[in-house]
Amino acid sequence: AGGRSGRSLTPWPGQQEKLIQQELTSLKATVSAPTTTLRLMKECMVRLIYCEMLGYESSFGYIHAIKLAQQGNLLEKRVGYLAVSLFLHENHELLLLLVNTVVKDLQSTNLVEVCMALTVVSQIFPREMIPAVLPLIEDKLQHSKEIIRRKAVQALYKFYLIAPNQVQHIHDKFRKALCDRDAGVMAASLHIYLQMIKENSSGYKDLTGSFVTILKQVVGGKLPIDFNYHSVPAPWLQIQLLRILGLLGKDDPRTSELMYDVLDESLRRAEINHNITYAILFECVQTIYTIYPKSELLEKAAKCIGKFVLSPKINLKYLGLKALTYVIQQDPNLALQHQMTIIECLDHPDPIIKRETLELLYRITNGQNVIVIVQKMLDYLKESKEEYAIINLVGKIAELWFIQTMNAVFSVGGDVVHPDIPNNFLRLLAEGFDDRKEDDQLRMYAVQSYLALLEEEDALYPQKFLQVMSWVLGEYSSLVTDVDPEVILTKLHSLLKKTVITSETKMWIMAAVTKIASHASCSKIVDKLIQEFSNSLDTCMRQYAFELKHLCEDKALMRNLLPFDGSCNDMVVDASLSFLDGFVAEGLGRGAAPYKPHHQRQEEKLSQEKALNFEPYGLSFVSSVSSSGVTGRQSPTGLSFGSDTSGNSAETGHKETNTLKLEGVRRLWGKEGYLPKKENKVGKENEPQTVSCGSLLAGQMGDPPALRSDQVASLSEEDKEKQQLASTLFIGLGSNAGVSLMGKADTATQKFKRKSKINETQSSEEASDFQDTSLCSSDIVEDNLAFETPQSLKKSGPDDRLPDIRLSQSSLFADSNIEIFQPSRNAQSESASKTPLVPCLSEELEELTHSEVVELCQSDALALYLCKVWTDDSLLLIVFVSNKTTSALNAVNLVFEEAEHFQILESTTYQFPVIEAQNVERCQKRVWMDKICTQGILSGSVNYQSEMETRLEFSITLSLVDFIRPMEMTTEDFGKLWLSLSNDVKQNIKMSSSQDSLSATLSTLQQKLKLHIVDIIGNEGILACQLLPSVPCLLHCRTHSGMLALWFRSPCSALPDGLLYQCQKVMEES
After folding, report:
1. Where is this region: Disordered (predicted)?
2. Dihedral class, residue 12 (left if φ above 0, else alpha if ψ from -120 to 50, else beta)
3. Is 236 in contact with 183 (CB distance < 8 Å)?
4. 546 to 493, 527, 631: CA distances (angstroms)
5. What is the pTM of this model?
């Protein structure tokens, strides 16, 4: 009986689908029946959840899950919420129907209902509906029950992940949650702080003491015993805190010093042999090697790594390799201590151990061991069958080595390699390096290798590899003069006839044939191809054949269209399609309808049919467009204009007609030109940055560890091979080698780039050296205060900085002729006592709106001051350079660094030929914001020659408000522009008692944010501004029950979020 029962409960895979389909049919009938009770509906939801978990769609039950959450008792509501969170995704259209239920439950007096609402909000909630529930969740942070406060923090963490700009105004409340009397609320707030510190660690340095204190209490067992796991106090809380401390202490001696004791205590107490303590030790090791180093802690961390690596347990060995991979950048000698263990791991039966060992070798690759390491990677690649491992390893090999292994990479990696790899390979081959002769030799070698591969008749190559071959042969086959083009065309023709070749690859081959034919005389193969594919069923191939036929009839035109090595030439594109102007004018003359943008067509469509109102009840904007107007995106200019003081806009709203709208046609062109072209430029700016291949072969020869002769004699042949392999792999890692490792950070992926020029390489090395030495004294660390550094620094190795935290000058600087500026307290007091030269603006600039003149930085010789002048067309930075010495300074160079978010309109450099003694000179630079941010840093330096060459660095903090200007317009123009803008953001903000009227609030926004008030009627107002040079942003405001409803619209998606944050900041300060 038991056997029969087991067989009935565990159907075969073929029977499972039949049973599930029968169950779904029954459930569909049950949930659709009007007599189904809520209790039965709850049981049906549980069954539907099980069916969905097995992979069978049950979309017919989604709406019933929402109804169950709305109508049921506590148990039924809980099942309904659970089903909704499992069934729907964040962008599902049915999720909007749940918003009002969530709002109602958040206002409930029943704690269980409030908890359920907060839980579903923290799991799944639409981004555009956040303003509807945000004020309610903020209030829950003050709730008397700790479980409510904890879930409210979790909900805000979810909001921060999907819409960070909408919760920036409540950062002070996050700090209160961190200090909450309940440990669970405090632990929940750590998730938010970890995310925020990852993005901007400098803004939270002041909280380092709080995090250290919390970790001390946790490690000391001061938390309730409920937080213990296998007698370990709050292990996951410890891991979170260790990660936060690692981010805060990176390259910061003062902050790191606060956490040395607690890290030592964490290492000492994590001695229980359990997996969770191993995880804590791993995080401790990572944190110790991330923060500013201390020799005692580094020794303890190295011992901990050694125990992991030498452990016979696979999990601990993997953890040790993982930690060793992380710390190898700071301490290469640590790999030498465990080199034989690493060699043994290369042949470990566990593929995960072997893969992590290859990752470690990848991090220590230099110019002397790259060949051996790449060969090991290729050996593993040939054995591996896992797609993820192939993709990951192919990318690493492509970064380490080039032509000699790329053929093997494409052959073995197949079509699962990332598209960036062949694209970057071809781009590097096309762009070349600095030497034209070397470039041609590299291309000739590629052509010859591909011709040799195509000689093998039965060889099957992946499609991506064939596409690479086709492109290279088409572009550079003419470089190989000893091969007849007809032979190459024959090989390509034979590829086209193979059935395994995909349509996409055939188009690559036809493009190659066309390019080769442009440099060759009459070809029988080309004529044969045209004849074969002119009648092809493949439309693309037929088009290629006709194009090739017409081009062959005019060889001169063909050579002009397809020049040799023209892949990198800039193409002139008529983005405005001006050549069609005559055709368009002719069509309009015959009565054709003008072109309408997509958004205008959508609005006209929505105005003729009923549409869902996506606004939550009680917090929505008042719709004031008549039934014949636009339903989806109404214009605020139709709100209350011409109405009485009550602001009843529904009675006298602006009415739109259904006549043809011609305004939308011009929105394809603006002051900046053709708008889609501008979007393409923005897309190019977002392309990932590349890293130079020239640095991949850096490194110097180092002596491998030597063995005594009696030891060598006693070794077996296998051990001798391992020793030989170790000496080959770990060459250049000695303490005296000064090797340049090629290890990469986990978060950055290197791509191909053209070889950097020598001076560029030197300057980049100088910049990186300057950052790594961490010379900033505790006496001179301030926000905008910079310090002098020499032009050239020598990078100190790990061993040079381990023994002591405070480095001597002789250990850092090998050149004794370089001046090192480290002002003492006495020197500072003496300089402060001197009467400074106070700069001032000219009379012309003094009349404009400007800031105070503030000091940027100073040294014994120079002082830098800054004044911001807000002109109509740009932000004008006036930099004053004051000579404090009694002698003239010659050739003073002021240089601004390239910034991610800002664009300097003129040259980024300025030279003062001479600055007389006790005199002030100035320069001015016009700046625009190139990439929108709420706040950014513009850095620069001043180089001058006094007794020796010296450099003084400075930084300028710029805000989004610096680049906002009022945009004057009429109400009618506002309404037309509003309908043409596609990106909008909405937010409700609480108004304080001091903000008693809308006009006073708008006046504050006008003054602080440089907005233009277009009109105010009743409880509604509209404002306009622009981001320099001419990106508009419109704002509609409305007061409602003590709330200020803000609605921004702009053609730029990031601008409304940035202005919303500034508005929230102003409202809190006022």
Report:
1. 632-655, 694-719, 749-773
2. beta
3. no
4. 17, 11, 49
5. 0.48
